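queue> holo job accepted (adenosine-5'-diphosphate)
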Amino acid sequence: MSDALAAAQRELEELRLRLAEAQETIRAIQGGEIDALVISDAEDSEPPRVFTLDAADKPYRLLVDQMHHASAALTIDGVVLACNTQFTRLLRRERQTILGQPLQQHIDPPGLPVFEALLRDGLAALAESEVMLRRADGERLPIVLGVRALHEGVAGVCLLVVDLSEQKRRERLIADEATARAILEQVADAVVVCDNEGTVLRASRAAHDLCGTNPLFQRFERVFALSRHDAPGTRVDLDAVWRGEPLRGLEVSFDRPGGKRAELMLGAGPLVVAGGERLGVVITLTDITSLREAEDELRRRASELQAVDRRKDEFLAMLAHELRNPLSPIQSSLEIMNLQALDDPLANQCRDVIERQVQQLTRLVDDLLEVSRINTGKIQLQMERIDLGAAVLRGIETSRPAVDAKRHRLQFACPPEPVWVRADATRIAQVIGNLVNNAAKYTEIGGDIGVRLECEDGRAVVRVRDSGIGIPQEMLAEVFDLFTQVHRSLDRSQGGLGIGLALVKRLVTIHGGQVEAHSDGPGLGSEFVVRLPLWDGERVGPEAPRVDKAAAAGPSLRVLVIDDNRDAAELLAALLGMLGHKVQTAADGPSGIATALAFVPQLVLCDIGLPLLDGYGVVADLRARPEFAETRFVALTGYGRTEDRQRSQASGFHAHLIKPVGLAKLKTLLRPPQAGEFET
Ligand code: ADP
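queue> job finished
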């Protein structure tokens, strides 16, 4: 019994020892003092098994190393103590170049303050922020850094890195898509995106509204049946567009479902993404209906204005004609009075006054006629080689009455040799006449007018200077505009219309020259400078024979005057009678023909606007008869437009003269006609 007790006590003792050993092991494990556990079974033949700590945390190490997110353990200064493989991939660096180095090296400088703050905050609690990481190859990568303190006595932080680039890309895509949607929703134009076959993939709100239906997944041409603006009814062919060719600014029409027609501007071009792939075609349709309506309205107004302008020209031509009619007999009367010496000095003076006023009136009427010619560009030049000095003198002479009337001193200077230019002598005389006339008009009585002709830099230059009222600086360019008058209120008695200088400019310009005005200011006189190209040596047409036409009056002639204005006809007849010619008159077309048949005149002076048969009819009738083969027919009319002259010539007249016809002109008509000549 005592043996059994002793054995039981030994066994109990052994169990106590094992328990103490097990408790010590657990304490050591719990105290972290165990590196490995060796487990063996004494009775077992199997070798003892060793459980090391390494084996215990290996799964965790593997877990950390292979997890999707990059992570690292840092000191509180940011030096990398450990990192997982994903972390090295993110930085595109070898692990050994990362470990032991501050992570700050790999952070984009603007993000450094954020990172430092993270390290600080992470010690207290989990902190997160976005920063930019710089990879080994320089690429920048957006990331979220999550930092929290490492526990268990390690002085450092644990870093969790989330690569944001994919998320950012998605965000961008979503934002892009939202923007695209907003654009399509709000853009004013109809924008339609089609695939390469012409099926609508996307369409703006305006495109929906335009076609009045949902165009998506339908053929573009079916929903938008467009026809060409320049060929109504012809469908717009978009085959080239589907092939990827761009199309810009094609004007098209579209009948909306409601029946209202829209005028559109079509633009199309391929939709190409980065990499060059053509995804489809973008078409824009801009509504230009109101633009076109405005254009049509403008066109309508312009044509209305043109019509009004034409009517104004016609009115001016008619007015000039009507004003010329009374002028003609007045001038004829004056000529007759001039042929008879008057004893009464007062009567003589009155006659001079009338003569000057008639000249003034004639000039005004001529200017009026020229306006319509200026406006229609119908001034035709008889260009020839002329001595500019002679033409300038002629111009001065036409203005002599105005100069003399105000007792101005006029000086003319020119080189001794001729100054040859290619020009229309009459028109140049008209230019100079207008300028000298203005100089006389706008200068106080007894002023000085100087006309100087010289050659400068290969051009002929005429300067017309006066000591008159001058022109303000700001008006110098404007005085050449039609109907511009600087001194409107000053001298209405001069009766100008503001046409003269516009005419001057137009005439000089069509001669290839320039004209400009100078003045030192009000009261300091003015100067007008005309520059014309010198004759370049090439001959243009025959030189006009220089004949003293007034001296070429021939012997007594039979003259028939046909004019329904009896005063004009009779005064002309009296004048011709005094010059020693036999004259008969008629007041309408048929009686003109009858008189001519009986009288067989050598010269017929015929008005155009005649009762019963007009002047064209009369001349056509008479010229068809052999007995009038030698007769000279002269149209005597108030209409001086180019087309009037052309019509006279075409109807068989030998000359076309504008009333009133002066004595000198009348005398030239009385010489024998010259073959092929047409006088105006
Ligand atoms: P008009 O003399 O019929 O008014 P013009 O076209 O010849 O028309 O001249 C336009 C304007 O230019 C005149 O009204 C006048 O105010 C100004 N002007 C023209 N010539 C002179 C000049 N020599 N001196 C001062 N002003 C002038």
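queue> The CA atoms of residues 655 and 678 lie 5 Å apart.
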